[in-house]
Write a structure and sequence with these properties.
Strand order of the largest sheet: 1-2-4-3-5
Strand content: 15-25%
Largest sheet: 5 strands, mixed
Structural class: alpha+beta
Number of strands: 9
């Protein structure tokens, strides 16, 4: 990502937010694997994908116009289309009204670059248990299941499998099955459903990618508290955020055209990111400090009763970023969501 003066500021902001949150999602999984265990990370991923599925799957079927299709076909097309909008490489192969394939092709979106080498396969199985195995439940079709035939994390060329409608009701344990000896047909783009994202302007693609990443971050933050409790969520989420904030600062700052090392320059950086997330964000110099005000927190909008640990963990993104911008500066929270509404006020000083 490089600064392009010809790029609209809104697009640069959406790309920066999408990149930052994309890295955070992968980072939280790896943090949980390394600081707790692979089994605990799998549990977090299961709860994340199950929560996301319950919130997004049925409304997504309606929005994409898929409710009229046979259930196996509708599910496979849903994953193909919804992930395509988010910039994820997915393939769809129709076999029959009761069997349709989906393949998530490397590079896997959720595991950027070499990070895939540190992801155990139980994480992949947890994703499938959390979402794919539960679509029949939401569709009230107890004969619908998912069969996984390949997993990238096992060294195979993609995460692959098919939705299948059986001749009898399936038990809960039968809704997800593994059959590595089976192989999907080849992908033919001419026979795949289309949303015409290839013709979307850069503005629309960048905003869609931002929305995709933000939705998963929101869900993961809630699932983190639900799975491990507030204090552990604060610890795991906080170290992840701080590391990602540090690691991604240089590339996101460059994308946003931030070059100076002044407090005002960092305030401009945070203001652009806040605006790109859909929040009204402004800053002003007040004596020896710079004060930022964000009037809303769109990321967690509607998450009534959210644990304060969620904000604490998320806020470490900006603490980490500031430590690279100016390691002598300090970011203090003067006002946080829940105290006087949804507003956030930061004070930055050396």
């Amino acid at each position: 990502m490089r600064y392009d003066p010809a790029m609209p500021q809104s697009v640069a902001g959406w790309e920066a937010v999408g990149a930052l949150y994309h890295a955070w999602i992968t980072g939280l999984i790896l943090t949980t694997v390394t600081r707790r265990s692979a089994a605990d990370a799998a549990e977090l991923v299961f709860h994340t994908f199950r929560r996301q599925q319950r919130e997004k799957f049925l409304p997504g079927l309606e929005k994409l116009g898929l409710r009229h299709l046979p259930h196996a076909v509708a599910c496979a097309q849903y994953h193909y289309l919804s992930n395509d909008v988010g910039g994820v490489r997915v393939e769809y192969m129709y076999e029959s009204a009761r069997k349709a394939w989906v393949r998530y092709v490397p590079p896997r979106w959720i595991y950027d670059g070499a990070t895939i080498c540190a992801v155990p396969s139980e994480i992949t199985r947890a994703m499938l248990r959390g979402w794919h195995a539960n679509n029949g439940e939401l569709l009230r079709n107890d004969r619908l299941g998912f069969v996984c035939t390949k997993m990238t994390t096992d060294g195979q060329p993609g995460l692959e499998g098919y939705y299948h409608e059986a001749d009898r009701p399936l038990t809960v344990d039968e809704r997800l099955r593994f059959a590595p000896d089976e192989d999907a047909p080849d992908f033919d783009p001419a026979h795949a459903p289309r949303l015409d994202t290839a013709t979307w302007p850069p503005e629309r693609l960048a905003k869609a990618a931002r929305n995709y990443a933000m939705t998963y971050v929101r869900t993961m933050l809630v699932a983190l508290v639900d799975t491990f409790g507030a204090e552990e969520a604060r610890r795991l989420g906080g170290i992840t955020s701080r590391l990602i904030g540090m690691q991604c600062y240089a590339t996101t700052a460059e994308l946003l055209g931030v070059k100076d090392r002044t407090l005002e320059a960092f305030a401009a950086y945070l203001t652009q990111l806040g605006t790109a997330q859909g929040d009204d964000t402004t800053w002003a110099r007040e004596h020896d400090a710079v004060v930022l005000r964000q009037t809303s927190w769109r990321l967690m909008a509607g998450a009534d009763g959210a644990s304060p640990a969620i904000f604490d963990a998320w806020n470490e993104l900006w603490v980490g970023a500031l430590s690279i911008h100016d390691r002598r500066a300090r970011l203090d929270v003067a006002e946080r969501p829940g105290e006087r509404g949804t507003a956030i006020v930061w004070r930055i000083a050396r």
